[in-house]
Design a protein that fits this description.
The structure is a homodimer of 229-residue chains. Chain A is α+β, with helices and mostly antiparallel strands and 229 residues long. Chain A has eight helices and eight strands, in the order αααββαααββαβββαβ. In chain A, the strands form two sheets. A six-stranded antiparallel β-sheet of chain A has the order 3-8-4-5-6-7. In chain A, a hairpin with a 6-residue loop joins β5 and β6. In chain A, α2 crosses α3, α4 crosses α5 and α4 packs across α6. Chain A binds a DNA duplex (30 and 30 nucleotides) through α3.
DNA sequence: AAATAAATTTAGGACTTCCGAAATCTCGAC
DNA sequence: GTCGAGATTTCGGAAGTCCTAAATTTATTT
């Protein structure tokens, strides 16, 4: 296997660390089942890999309790996330990629690109701090500015907000959000949240080109916003 | 393993096919030992892989006689070569990569990039027909224009030529050639070829900024030129 | 024609990453 | 406290890619 640098972790290892970082951030510790679900592999496979990663000092594992990354594991995870998001940003801004396709491409390139390439890409598009979906890009040094944001559905009816981030892992869903204008930066007003899983009504955009749309509550909860005014 | 497309060959498979294509072009058929040497792996490993590739219909193997690619094998090889060379060209022209570093980067990215990405890169830099080292880039359809060229050392003393291609697989050597100005397009005049493995004297460049240099015969033979005037 | 050298293949292992099936553990309900 | 559902781990196995060492085949030399 050609290594990319003195630092050579395999693609699966980088993927494990990446999703563990994200689960840990969301829930404190990453359970085997959650990891398996995110990676779309069998839980049994995760058990085996987790043991090896623990042996390598990338994470700590309490049996039946889940895993936590070590400093080194976190560093590798953040480096991988930086790669992913820089690549997504570059493909969008420099090569005109539609925003729903960049995720899959980045998912593969992130394991092959050198630090040199990532830095050149970042420089070429002006050192962006967030990717096309609004996710923050860790710095070369591994610092990440995890913004706090609320779900679109957390707004009160009538309240104004601005989209800061959407989840990027489903191309079709992203395309749909794009058609509705629900991209990072878009101004929104929550009109109504129908109860019992009913549709969420939102006004998207400002002024003359604004439009109302109705989306499901699960989708709406994945659109992260900040309050404005 | 995430696949890149309906067409999913592993990185090692693509590398085998690529070097087999090149050896076959140079010598008619690719011997196990040659393949092993180019891939820097043990000959025994090649035997095993060759059998699998033959089973998959990518090449034909006559025991103890070497291998030849099938139509399908050739197609995959040329697609991989196109990827490699488009990536090299893009890194050089769009991201300012020094020409001695692009080979290693492309060697990894060629297995991860989608056809879509390759096409966008090619379009972004104006559909180049040769890479930074002068090697021809196969078309999307798998056609390649293998130019005929002679070694620098095939020129007669006093004869003029133009560099069309240099070999790209050794970064340090490439950097050296670059310092001497021996890049594709450079005008050269062969001054003298000392006998018995002696140095080759060449005038590089035209007019006032031309300079004479002395290089070893092995290096000189790897600088491919065409006659001018 | 036999001996030697070189190229090639086979045999037996190692490592990584995945799987399904079976065993084990945890924790809340009763 | 026990039970069972659900989560987790262990076990045995497969595929891919590589290795070294030993056996075999081909080519060359004498």
């Amino acid at each position: 296997m050609e290594s990319r640098a003195p630092e050579a972790y395999t693609a699966p290892v980088e993927n494990y660390l990446k999703v563990i970082y994200e689960i840990e951030r969301a829930s404190g510790a990453a359970a085997t089942t959650d990891i398996a679900q995110r990676l779309e592999i069998a839980p049994a496979s995760v058990s085996g890999m987790v043991r090896r990663l623990a042996d390598q000092g990338l994470l700590e594992h309490e049996r039946y309790r889940g895993v936590k990354l070590t400093e080194e594991g976190r560093r590798v995870a953040l480096r991988t996330i930086r790669r992913h998001r820089v690549i997504e940003s570059y493909l969008t801004r420099a090569l005109g990629y539609p925003w729903d396709l960049v995720h899959d491409e980045a998912e593969r390139l992130e394991h092959a690109a050198s630090d040199e390439l990532i830095d050149r890409m970042a420089a070429a598009i002006g050192e962006p701090t967030v990717d096309p979906h609004g996710a923050p890009i860790p710095t070369r040094e591994g610092e990440i500015d995890e913004q706090s944001h609320i779900a679109l559905t957390d707004l009160e009816p009538g309240e104004h907000g601005r989209v800061v981030r959407v989840s990027d892992d489903d191309a079709a869903r992203l395309r749909y959000l794009g058609e509705l204008g629900l991209r990072p930066g878009a101004a929104v007003v929550l009109i109504e949240c129908a109860p019992y899983g009913g549709p969420v009504t939102v006004r998207v955009g400002a002024g003359a080109k604004s439009a109302e749309c109705h989306i499901g509550p699960a989708l709406a909860a994945d659109v992260r916003v900040e309050r404005t005014e």
